Amino acid sequence: MTTTKTFYLTNTGSHNAYFQVLDTKPIPGMVISPGYGLAPLNALTAIKCEMNPTEIIKFDARVLIQIRGGKQLELRLSGESEEPIVDIDLPKFEFGGIFSGAVSRMPFKIENTSKVKARVEFNLKRYHDFSIKTLDKTTELVENERNYELVVNGDEEVPLELIFAPTEVASYEFELPISVNRPDDNLDGYASSSPYTDYTSVRGKTPLTRKSSRYSLYNYIPKRKVIAIGLRPAIEISNPNINFKIPIAYFEKLRDGGFFEAKATQLINKSHKPVKWCVDLRKSNKVLEDGIFKLCDGSLVPFIGGDKKSHGPEGVLGPNEACDLNVLFSPNKPGVYNCTLPIVINDYFEQAFYHIFVSGELLAPVIKFEPEVLILRPVPLGVKLSDQFFIRPVGYEKKSNLKLEVQSAKAINEDLIDVINAQFVNEPVIDPNNDQNLIEVSITFSSNQPISNSVKLKFTDDQHREFFYNVVVTSDNSLFTCYGFLADHNSDYQIVLETGQIMKGTRPQKQTSVTSELSGEPILRPCSNTSRLTNNHSVSPTFDMNASTADPSPIKEQDDEIQAAFNGEV
């Protein structure tokens, strides 16, 4: 594992400086980069120190950094590497005989009992019938050409499973190829060339004082034997993946129970002996219990199971015989459904070696929004901003009307306020016969309170299906927030102060008692010439126009009074 530390050179002089690290590889496994470079004036220059030890080592070293035309700097490096201790909770992996085409899984846990991270790798390039899978969704397992790699933190336990899926008749007996913290080759081959003079040879000084002690190598690599046998296939499943996809046009028939879709798969006995098969339905499966998927034989009569102790459909196949297993799909509402059917051979219920994966989808009408989310630009308080978006219906088989409802939004002070006015531009009717059916919605946003939130618009059709659309809005009187708006309308509005007041924050704190009585907020005043309001998004001002004729003399008198107080003349 590579550990990276960063230190910084600070140039407090009057000119830029050039530096050179006299020894970029002071300790085996350590690389300092960059080896040379420029240290700008009044800036920090980052230098990385990467350590990837290949053995247990304690070190204490000095690294010299030469500054051109200046003195040498000394950096002291000390530390030690700790050996990771990794173990597997199983003494061995013994699969026994597994039929070709079947899958056997053996879960295990890999544990790191040390305090440091461990990079564990399983190299299964030579064993194509074996693979590794993580049982923890939070663990990242990286696969690269059947080389599996994961990082185990200190004092951590990660659940994995070794999968054996034989594709041929074969016998396996080998040690699980595992490595812990295999050294990175890129650090060993790192080279640093410098165009500058080697100061150590000129001055005759040793840039490094090294004290290190090495002991042991990585001895805590678990060795586990894998024993498995690939047998002749017992049965063959013609279609192990059954997929249904039903359009919404059949939804009414499905709801009335007058329609279902059926697909079949064949079970074929490939051995020279009779094989007994059974679908194991003892485990709880909601889609099967709700009747969304049903199993039946060639007569399409659904199988009716009893309690959870009973098994599913079963039978006996002679050599080279085949039978059909049908799956019926009859959902009660639109959605995606999945189910796994374990196939047990010869009453070996401890583990099902074959599986049939069933998935079904009943499509539902939807409406798509263009764009998917509408983000309005920030505007000052009280300014109206207009925009529009479009609705495109998909999957509707008959006409339907849309209703629109605008929900309230939370202001910054947690008050619920209505800031958006929305309405349909054209007729809100969904017509499946019109390929260009596009519904336009116009919105107008304005807020008198600071807000930065998402406003939901709810659309409901005649079948009471609900669809939500998000409009992101922001409004306040901050110049930083509304800079884009003010920059585009710099000749349309003026930022002024209310008559007789000064802007907050423009006087020292020691005059707080004076300024607190006279400070105020800036206001946005529209200019008399509004001919430049030609943007695509219409904006209308709602500001007080009285300030346009205000006499500036009270402000000047007040400024003179406060300036005199600041100078100590009052």
From TrEMBL:
Residues 508-518, 527-551 have a biased composition (Polar residues). Residues 507-558 are annotated as: Disordered. This is Cilia-and flagella-associated 47. One of its GO terms (biological process) is cilium assembly. Keywords: Cell projection, Cilium, Flagellum. It comes from the Eukaryota. One of its GO terms (cellular component) is cilium.
